[in-house]
Design goal:
about 475 residues, alpha+beta, Creatine Amidinohydrolase, Chain A, domain 1, Creatine Amidinohydrolase, six-stranded mixed beta sheet, 18 strands
Length: about 475
């Protein structure tokens, strides 16, 4: 049975995403990992881990600020210290946090949402003692559960906060692995949200395909995609890679204001969030026409993708997938580090790169076993023999009980040519042609001289 997809609204006549279940099951997975660990609690400053733990969100502007933090003590309830009035908003609108945390030994219980702020990445003067106050808040909560002497897992942290925690006698260890293990297998509702996010990108690619033509700029493509996604209800367009022409090889990983030209390859990566759940979704197009070298590069890129997808099933490993991809030296790089993320796989969830990771750089040394319920993306890349163009494809998939289902649906089995169709005196101009016109006329003249051409040129090119 295919992975279900739904409308983006909540309705009473169809069971869609159950957000109460989503919150409950995510916290349950995190609790289970904490119980399996040797940690007394996990403390998060990472925006996505905080959302996974507490189901709170204050806007994507806060993603890189490290201003808010949450704690899950072993045997206790999650606590979020949030930015200014956001803490009061959670009290009013996030009833799942109203659990009376801290009601021990006659002490009045506190709400699970409290005001708090870190150092504003150093913008507060150190003499104000913000780092020390954060550490005291955490220590007080640990004391309530008798956990102050247990190791505490932290995902990311500012150096003053780390020092202040140490001064409070709190032993800090790496907690990011615990979060990533909890997030490795997606719940039913997480998968539904990931499918919804991908369906929005399907639509954005349809608009982009209709828009591409000579004269548009890469940044205009980024704007069109962003508008399409926000109109559909995207929470955050994290990034749109728009790469065209000679910028395709090597891949620069950033868009520019370059003007697209006839015969250009152009590949795009669309990364956005719907209710926190993300996409990472590449497609390659050619503008007006594609050369033989570009078509060959695309087919090779596609073949590596298909070989890997064919191997995806529970029990397979990331090493199995990486083994069918080419070595870095085969496509112009000295080693796997230099070619990292060109032939690549990564989990997709509340953040773009989660477990599992598929790469020749790491997967042979530490292979990860694929499990039902994982959602990840596979990316392949191949530079064309012309020395400047390239192809890039990415598919997202859900691991099912006996294989996988690809949830990125915009057509990618063959190289698509976008833009206006041109007509010659003998009919439509072929879309498979060299960028430089003289090469096409030279080919036709050679065929004509040998008697192979009668009437229209054999490749459809204009004389």
């Amino acid at each position: 049975m295919p992975v279900k997809s739904f409308g983006l609204n909540a309705v009473d006549w169809e069971q869609r995403v159950d957000f109460d279940r989503l919150r409950r099951e995510r916290l349950g997975r995190l609790r289970a990992e904490l119980e399996r660990s040797e940690l007394g609690a996990v403390l998060s400053f990472d925006f996505h881990n905080i959302r996974y733990m507490t189901a709170t969100h204050i806007g994507t502007w806060a993603m890189d600020k490290l201003i808010r933090y949450s704690l899950l003590p072993r045997g206790g309830e999650p606590v979020i210290w949030d930015f200014g009035s956001a803490a009061k908003h959670h009290v009013l609108y996030s009833p799942w946090l109203d659990h009376g945390s801290g009601g021990h030994d006659g002490v009045a219980p506190e709400h699970g949402s409290r005001p708090g702020i870190s150092t504003l990445r150093g913008a507060f003067h150190p003499g104000l003692g913000r780092a020390e106050e954060v550490a005291r808040q955490v220590r007080r909560e640990l004391d309530k559960y008798g956990l102050a002497n247990e190791p505490i897992g932290v995902d990311v942290v500012e150096m003053p906060i780390l020092a202040a925690l140490a001064n409070e006698g709190i032993r800090v260890v790496d907690g990011q692995q615990l979060f990533l293990e909890a997030r490795r297998i997606k719940t039913e509702d997480e998968i539904s949200l990931l499918v919804a996010a991908a369906s929005m990108v399907d639509a954005a690619y349809d608009q982009l395909y209709a828009f591409l033509r000579p004269g548009v700029r890469e940044n205009e493509c980024v704007g069109l995609v962003a508008k399409a996604l926000y109109d559909l209800g995207s929470e955050h367009v994290e990034g749109v890679n728009a790469i065209s022409g000679e910028r395709c090889s090597p891949h620069p990983h950033v868009y520019s204001d370059r003007i697209l030209r006839p015969g250009d390859p152009a590949f795009f990566d669309i990364l956005h969030s719907f209710n926190g759940y993300r996409t990472c979704y590449y497609r390659t197009f050619n503008v007006g026409s594609a050369s033989a070298a570009q078509r060959d590069a695309y087919r090779r890129c596609r073949s590596y993708m298909d070989e890997a997808i064919d191997l995806v099933r529970p029990g397979a490993t990331t090493a199995d997938l990486a083994a069918v991809w080419p070595r870095a030296e085969e496509f112009g790089f000295p080693d796997e580090l230099a070619a990292f993320a060109l032939q690549y796989g990564h989990g997709v969830g509340l953040s773009i790169w989660e477990k599992p990771i598929v790469s020749r750089l790491v997967s042979f040394d530490e292979p990860e076993v694929l499990e039902e319920g994982m959602v990840f993306a596979l990316e392949t890349y191949w530079p064309a023999s012309d020395g400047w163009s390239a192809a890039r494809i990415e598919e997202e998939m859900v691991v099912t009980k006996d294989g996988c289902e690809v949830i990125t649906k915009f057509p990618a089995e063959e190289l698509l040519v976008a833009g206006h169709r041109y007509w010659t005196v003998d009919g439509p101009l072929t879309t498979r042609r060299e960028v430089e016109s003289h090469k096409n006329t030279r080919e036709w003249r050679g065929a004509f001289a040998s008697g192979a051409a009668v009437g229209a040129p054999s490749n459809g090119a204009a004389i």
